[in-house]
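Chapter summary example: a protein plus magnesium ion.
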Amino acid sequence: MTTLNDLTSCIAQFDPNAMPVHAAQAIVRQWAVPVATVERVALRAALNRVLAEDIASPIDVPAHDNSAMDGYAFDGAALSGHASSGGDTLTLRVAGQAFAGHPFEHAAASGECVRIMTGAAMPAGCDTVVPQEFVTRAENGNISFDPQRLARGANCRHAGEDLAKGQSALRAGRILRSSDLGLLASLGIGEVAVRRRLRVAFLSTGDELRSIGEPLPAGCVYDSNRYTLFAMLERLNVDTLDLGVVRDEPAALEAALRQAAESADVVLTSGGVSVGEADFTRKMLQTFGDVAFWSMAMRPGRPLAFGRVWSGGRPAEGRPALFFGLPGNPVAVMVTFYQIVREALVAMSGAEPQAPLSFAATSTQPLRKRAGRTEFLRGIATRDADGRWRVAPTRSQSSGVLSSMSEANCFIVLAHDQTDVGAGEAVDIMPFDGLI
Ligand code: AMP
Ligand code: MG
């Protein structure tokens, strides 16, 4: 694990009060140590889990040469023999049939073929399949077709073509998807080793917050961040621990954070890190945590604290948990989660984080942008009749307006050094699909 000294020298290159996004991501990555515990689970329970072992195929897939079409299997040598004799049709006697799961038990002799269905094992002596659409059947049951329409080996799938025995099928660190479950099943594997789920605790801070079901006095708001956080964490398939709402009191927050560090690998809080409240959280954290940075050169999401908290109540005492103090504003919570927290959680889960999909689209409107910070606007991307992507910002870009996230289908990402964008210029967009 990176020591605090390594981290401090890394941080020293940047202003911890306005950490550029790429630097923040690099620092977070250094502290994102994968969980070590491995467990074996049944195949269906392995969906979205992180594979903890390399899987080599124990068998050839498919196990035998088989037909890719419904038709007639025969020895393809007859094609060239026939061509040289100058005839324009090839006639074969049907010696039997092969269905999927019911092979033809004999060998096809010269001048013979075998009626065969897709997936059925190729009979001995056969290497080519003529599709049934190509043949005419005589009354005596023989088939004829034009041999020029076929090459030797056509429509035959070979044993081990998908995966040969011993070949690498899946690598450790992969997040198992639907196709992977099917692939493992095709190898006859019913159980795999996966990393244990990451445990993530989260809480909201703020005297103004009320939980659903409580009355809403003047000046109060319902706590929405715990619901967005819960949902985003569920999508990452981590175990969640909801620690509720914590009042703006140092003692209450410290107790909650220590409890979280006791049982969780990561603690997420929202609120209480903006300018007016920073000192309060900062002082408390400095007594029992390591803080890497407090603020990022990003919008929304400028106030974001990152470090570690220790269950023992003092640095290096007890158990550490990675700490992300997210801003309070609901949109800022989501943006900082996706840009900073998500990658750390993926890495700590034992997987190799993949950069989120992003591509260029034409901005339909001028966009104001100040150099020196990365901005994430909420955008609505559409594809025009020519197949080109265009993007417009949502009506509100306020970091308090959560409906802008529901209205949007992508982030418009304006890079650190970028300045104003004119209408018709290209911008990078990051689609929500697959991300959110
Ligand atoms: P703070 O960072 O604590 O100053 O909060 C910034 C803004 O976000 C304030 O308007 C808060 O009321 C609001 N806010 C903070 N936490 C939450 C929450 N859990 N749910 C909804 N709004 C919140
Ligand atoms: Mg607050």
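Key point: The domain at 4-37+197-348 is CATH 3.40.980.10 (Molybdenum Cofactor Biosythetic Enzyme; Chain A).
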